[in-house]
Amino acid sequence: MRTTRRRAQTVAGLSLLALGIAVGAGCSSRSAGAENRSSPSASDGQSQRPVEMFSWWESAGDGGVLGALIKHHQKSYPGDVIINAATGLSGLARKTLRTRMIQREPPDAFQANVGADIMQWVLMNRSDARESKLVALDDVLPEVAEWRRTMPARLLDQVSYDGKLYGLPSNVHRINSLFYNRRVFDKYGLTVPATVADMKAIGQKLKGTGVVPLAMGSKEPWTLALLGFECLLVSREGPTFYEDYLHGKLKADDPRMRATLHALLDLGSIFNSDHAQYNWLQAVEMVTRGQAAMTAMGDWATVFFTTQGMQPGKDYGEVAFPGSENTFVFTSDAFALPVDARNKAGAERLMRTLGSPEGQRVIARKKGALSPRADVEPPAEEPTLVKKHELWLHGDLVLALSGIAPPRFSEDLGAALAEMFDRRDVEPVVHTLKSRYALLK
Predict the structure, then answer these.
(1) Do residues 426 and 259 make contact, with C-beta atoms less than 8 angstroms apart?
(2) Is the pLDDT of residue 42 over 60?
(3) How is residue 161 annotated by DSSP?
(4) What's the burial of 7, exposed, middle or buried (CB within 10 Å: 0-12/13-18/19+)?
(5) What is the Cα Rg of the chain in Å?
(6) What percent of the chain has pLDDT over 70?
(7) Does residue 380 contact residue 156 with C-beta atoms inside 8 Å?
(8) Which of 157, 54, 153 is nearest to 99 (CA)?
(9) pLDDT above 50: residue 115
């Protein structure tokens, strides 16, 4: 997932997460016992060396997902100590990880988005897996056979090469989501937008009220790409065009792409004017406080609404970005095992927990996400999740930009989008798309 954040603070360094952390994981003793019976003994082969995880989950708004996961892990492996090399902003996390991987000093397990974000470490020579920096999970974990039975091939394909699995998907997030404050909508007589034009109309109605129509935090400019490509482009041109364009099958300056950029720039007229000073979490916070009516963000934002005491359907609403109701633009946080990891045995135990049904329930519950496992269904009392689960099973699925495009393309695109808003001109993005489009082929 692209994550995370907190009021322009960067959480960096090592944070020791004791396995006895007081976070309720809400797991059943029956399932925990079953996992103890099916997994290697909790004492077999364990050393005193900590297991070093590299995840951006343990930042504000993630609702203690990592702590809850570790607490559940302790039920099967009480001797394990987990250290999170926490880097609070996803962009910074990737840069730090790259340095460590290149220097052959990787963590024991790390988080990345499915697709290009994780597979860059497999196809190091851009040809095959002979120089892979990741372990093929099939070679070390018999649980892979179970994961293949319970997770959709469409998802596992994004972490596989030549029939081998190199990453374990831990959740499924919908990116093309729109959140709104129901109290703001009720106060000003607003209706949930069905079109982008409706969003602009909300902007007109809120003029002079002091309420921002559409909160944006573009301090990390991937948020502009999320709105422009994974929401607006899909809404305007459909999932097939989105996929074809991002797989390098069309012309870089296709007029439909240029028209979408103009539409994005026009939508910027209802942003908060200081959006470049905010990160995505601050934009969501504007909605929770009633300072903004709406924000477009992946559904991981639901966790922050919950931490603010807001209830779905009562205090806030979540809908598909207008025009993309039948499309599920998805991403998934996957975990991988580096070849050069020091505590391989401990990392393998952690992967067993991450992929287990109860482990995935913990993650889904704490992240407000779906589980990729078909046997882990969302709670019936959460209708929005149930509806998304049905769409995940039967709708149009397209992978997020971070899964399709190589990191260099995404970084350059983000910088160009920021410049586009600075200059109020689409040409910086058009130029970048033309000069970098070959990277998509």
Answers:
(1) no
(2) no
(3) E
(4) exposed
(5) 21
(6) 87
(7) no
(8) 54
(9) yes
